[in-house]
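Build the 3D complex.
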Amino acid sequence: MTPLRRRSLLAGLVAGAAATRRAAAAETIHVGVSGPLTGPNAQYGAQWKDAFDLALAEVNPAAQRQIQYVFEDSQSDPRQSVAIAQKFVNDQRIVMELGDFSSPASMAASPIYQRAKLVQFGFTNSHPDFTKGGDYMWSNSISQAEEQPQLADFAIAGLGKRRLGVIHLNTDWGVTSKNLFAAAAKEKGAEVAAAEGFLPGERDFRSTLVRIRDSNPDCIVLLAYYADAATIVRQIRTLGLPQAIVAVSSVYSPKLLELGGDAVNGVHVITTFFPDEPRAEVQRFVAAFRAKYNREPDTFNATAYDTMILASTLVNQFGATRAAVREGLAKVRGVPSVVFGSMQFDPNTRRVEGARYKRLVVKDGRFTLWS
Amino acid sequence: MGGAWFDYTVNGFVIGNIYALLAVGLALIYGVANLVNFAHGSVYVVGAYVGWAAITYLDTPLPVTLLCVVAVSALVGVGIERIGLRPLHGSSRIAPLLATIGIALVLDQVVQLVFTPDPRAVPMQVPEWRVAVGGGTIGALDLLIAGIGLTSAVVLYGFLRFTKLGWAVRATAQDSDAAQQMGVDVNRVNMAVFAIASALSGVSGVLVGMYYNQISTAMSFEATLKGIVALIIGGLGNVPGAIAGSLILGLTESYGIALFGTSYRNLFAFVLLIAMLVWRPNGLFAARRALPPEPMTGTFIARSRPVVVPRWAVAALVVAAALLPLLGQPYLLQIGANSLMYAMLALSLTLVAGTVGQVSLGHAALLAIGGYASGLLAMDAGWPVALSIPAAGLVTAALGTLLVFPAFRLTGHYVSIATLGIGEIVSLVILNWTGLTRGAIGLGGIPPLEVFGFDLGSVEGTYWLCLAVLVLLALLQLRLLRSHLGRTWRAIRDDPVAARSYGVSGDRYKALAFGFGGFAAGISGAITAHVYSYINHETFGASISILALTMVILGGLGNVAGAVLGATLLIALPEAFRFLAEYRILIYGIVLLLLIRFRPQGLMGTV
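Done.
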């Protein structure tokens, strides 16, 4: 934590304490967060925290029931997430749980939450089986079944490409995405010429790219996160491959520009969240985030922010009990959302549909709308 | 297609070049201290961040950046020697290895706390010109990395061969006691070696950071792992061999990708590692002789008097543990259940590593085999859970023994590295054998624990089941250790040659130990799978193998009660430190280091 951030956190705490004193009549409601604050995924936990604090600073002062979150570090490790789950389900203050980050950590804890009838809300859990863990597993994570056809459409209808070389993360998320993408591409009359899966943490893609090159694609599709995508794109350029590059929404991040440098110019990406979008929810979020943290938010921030707004809406509209939160998720309509515009759940899949996709291209080191 | 093979070859050299900088430092340390330094990758990360900070805040030009990195990394190296190695001199061969693991944990956490876990871009300070080679290009930085790697190897080689200090280093490597008697200041030699090796590691960190324009705190383990593989290929402790080994590793990975695809990359690297260990354990460049005098008989495991716990106390503890659920503390019980599951794993490892002396660094693979076996039997074959769990134990016993069989002729550190490789291979096979294991998607919806209709899915049920299974396994293991079998295992550990001359076939007895150990670990993995309901190839990763070894060493190698105590402590401590938030893993690492420092023979003593 840099000194600057520590100071602002301290200031936030003081301000928060003052706010609590002012609204003594208001009730404090606790939600539990299980996520990585240390370990290899710690960066994502830090992003969550920033977005949570921002959302609560916004909704709590006016709310009758004010949310406070209890963040337990799981390192995204199932051994720790199950212990945290026991901690949360037996802490009667907790009315809802958010997280965990990775599928193994989240889904290992699901049976405990399901048994205790405490909602486990996984906002980064796109694994198709996550919400099948039981009727207390809900998610507003972007469904890849919805996103991949959008991506395929961008490459095929938008850019007019026919032979696609796919590089995907070899995890549950990456493989699910790849399969859905391949099906969508086939349906739209294009061919997946090659599909290469890489392991998290890999840095060298030169030989992978030779394989991609030799499959003669006219477009390279990246199903990865922004940090890996930056590395891959740099190596695509140093190898001198001229193909167009199209990437999923998890690649959209200001960090892509920082880590990728000049090489990422010309990269096409779809995204559900774009700071320049004029929509009111987006503009309010972006302005507040910039003011508070002095940097650009990304999709992970936006999803976490949406989730905390949702939590506040649920307890204020439907009541501050575990049963009320569960009932509320099935009933709630039109929750303002940065990612979805407005959010409601399909009670059967327990997921949200209708994310709004923007098509972007990196031009002169900036994300701009593609047309 | 010929053009493509040329490209794959170039790419193999380019990545091998990067591994070489890591492997040279590891080789140097191994050559002198007989130690595989697991903190090497963490020094690499420290170097990368020091370089980043120098460029970002001080605007240093490249030579000054490198100078800063060399200075800080060398200092860290000196610290590792002073804290992790010197105080442990003469305690046992395994304690320093564990200390480097603890230091790695602490270093990674410190870097993460100081610089935040966010990945950073390292500004390029090397001219950006590139020349076309085949279908790709090579840049100035590739040449700089190769230059530094080669120069350092040549300089080090010359230093070791032709200077007086170099002779002292080599004398220390061969026999540190004799060297000391001849007037060599062994501590200074060690310190110098750690400084040089760590400086090299730090420099490679910052150069690789520039190369990929990205550094993150998560890159240390991967760096250590690849450095170790390259080191083995080149021959432990052989500095020029380390460079060749790195290039061969790079080429193998590149050709592996060419032939089978990207997801097979690491599989190839680790298969090569095992092949090397089996056929050329001295590395490609050593004269073909027997294994080096590495297993200094009996000294790999420290001698100590085990702590004797009276029977009535053990019985009382078991009864107290059985009554724990009556307290009505589900969080505590879940930690208890986790501890018990890990205690089964620790039992297995303490037998293999402590009693038989085969220090395994890939034990999590047995959990994975057990978990997948039970999960698949229950889901695809429709077996009841009460049958699938013991069946998974048997499958793991058979498969696990078969997998480590090639490593039986190895000793000492070679076993650890071979098992590390086998563990990675198991995880990669699970990832790639999509037809059986569903690959990266993993096994979801594994049925909860139940025994003939009794639902044990509640935390109390899980806890009691684990406790019952653990007590049974522990009693069985104690019985075996007291039998002639236990004596034979210890005989093989203490002096394999003597054991053989008494007509004891080492391999068969090792197989028995791995069989029994595999059974216990398989059961543990199977129960874990049913508790988690979802597992994939990452659930039982290399970090769990290292955790298990830490438990066993902490408890006292070979000590059954120690294994249970070690497991309980290492599962409970990170939970107990929760109030420390981001600092808890750092404190955990420091506690671990202190325990190793003051009880290198383990809390309960080795048996």
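Chain A touches chain B through 72 residues (CB under 8 Å).
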